Every structure is written in C-alpha cells, then in structure tokens.
Amino acid sequence: MDTSPTSLFDSYEQDFEQIVASIRDKLDADSPTQPGEQRKAALRRVEMELDEADEMVAQMEIELQGMPQSIKPPYVQRAKSCKSTLASLKSRARSLHAAAQRASLLSSASDTAGSPFRDSSDELGDGAGARNGDRTRLLKGTQVLEDGSRRLVDAQRVALETEEQGADILTDLRRQREQIENSRNTLQTADSAIDRASGTLKRMIRRMYQQRVVIALIIAVLLILIGVILWEKLS
C-alpha cells in the first residue's frame, strides 16, 4: 500500500478524470432530437456525476492541507485545473439543461395549441371568433410557460438545497478528518513519551545494578581489610 503524502491526491485525481470523461461522453451525445424523457434522464445522470466530481475536488483540497510545502505547489496547480474543468462542465450542463427545458415547454405549448383550437377556429366564420380563438391559445400558452417557470424555480430550489446538504456533509467529513488527525498526533506524542519513559527506566535499572556492584566491591574490600587487621593482631 502506497503511504506517500501524495498517494490519496493522485487517487482522487484519477477518479476525477474518469468521472469527467463519462460526463463529456454524455454531454457530447446530447442531441435535441433525443426523446424528452431520455434526454432528461441523461442530464440527471450528468448532474449526479458532477456532484461526484465536485466531491473529488473537495477531497483533493483536503489532501493539499497535509502535504509538505516543498512538494505542494504543482499539486495546487493540478487542483486548480480540475476546478476549472469542473466549472466548464457545469456551465455546459446548465446550458443543455436550459435548452432541454425550453424544448419541453415548446413541445407542451405546441400540444396545447393543437387541433381542438384549430377546429374551433374553423367553425367560427367571423373575425371575432378567430380573435377569441387566438386569445384562448395565447392564454393557454402563457399558462404553460408559467407552469414551466414554476417547475424551473422548484428545480433550482431543490438543486440549491442539495448543494447545501452536500456542503454540510463535506464540512462534517473535514471535521471528522481533523479529529482523526488530532487523535493520531496525540497517539504519536504518547508513543514518544512512552519511549522516553522506557529509556529512562532502563537507565535507572542499569545504574541500580552498577550501584549494587560498587557496594559489593566496597563490602568485599572492607571484609578483606578487617581480615588483614585481625590476622595481624592475632599473629
């Protein structure tokens, strides 16, 4: 297992590149001729992958905080490049999403202003009836546009709420990561203190044995001196 300070950054960057490639494939495959529901489903998948790519960028920024300053600058540039790429893809996805919404609204308006209104206009022979039919179609079209605008506002609100929830989750993850790093630093400090205490105890034991040897030598010398003195007196 690679334990270098840049291994996680490289892993997140690889995941980001894979997600970006998938997003580009879906965006390049987008076409106004696609069925409405199929096109919307593809754009929803693009939005989900954009959220994943955004999370990868956030993780890369977290990894940058723990890198040594000597190797950090090139990785900062790589993270900025990823953010720029993500911003471009988000802008493109928003444009395609707006185009899809407009196409859906125009299709709904066309369906609403279809044959029933043309039939009623044909049945009316005078100009007033035609004007009433036009007014009715305009009112129906305006109502459809208002409904579409409300749906767009609701979709934007949901997107903002989702983005806020994602930001809260990322904040919690950063906080938990900091707590884990602090715990790891505390454990490392405790290990260092235990190592120092173990070394101190070993030195104390060694000195105790040295003192015992010295005391034994002193006692032996005293016994020898006592024996010599007694031998001289007795002799």
UniProtKB/TrEMBL annotation:
Subcellular location: Membrane
GO terms, biological process: Golgi to vacuole transport; intra-Golgi vesicle-mediated transport; intracellular protein transport; macroautophagy; retrograde transport, endosome to Golgi; vesicle fusion with Golgi apparatus
Topology term for the membrane: Single-pass type IV membrane protein
Domain T-SNARE coiled-coil homology: residue ranges: 137-204
Molecular functions per Gene Ontology: SNAP receptor activity; SNARE binding
Gene3D superfamilies: 1.20.5.110, t-snare proteins
Residue ranges, annotated region (Disordered): 105-135
Pfam entry (one): V-SNARE
InterPro entries in alphabetical order: SNARE, T_SNARE_dom, v-SNARE_N_sf, Vesicle_trsprt_v-SNARE_N
Transmembrane parts of this sequence: 213-231
Predominant localisation class: membrane
GO CC annotations on file: cytosol; endoplasmic reticulum membrane; ER to Golgi transport vesicle membrane; Golgi apparatus; late endosome membrane; SNARE complex
Keywords assigned: Coiled coil, Membrane, Protein transport, Transmembrane, Transmembrane helix, Transport
PANTHER family recorded: VESICLE TRANSPORT THROUGH INTERACTION WITH T-SNARES HOMOLOG 1A, VESICLE TRANSPORT V-SNARE PROTEIN VTI1-RELATED
Family: Belongs to the VTI1 family.
Protein name according to UniProt: Vesicle transport v-snare protein vti1
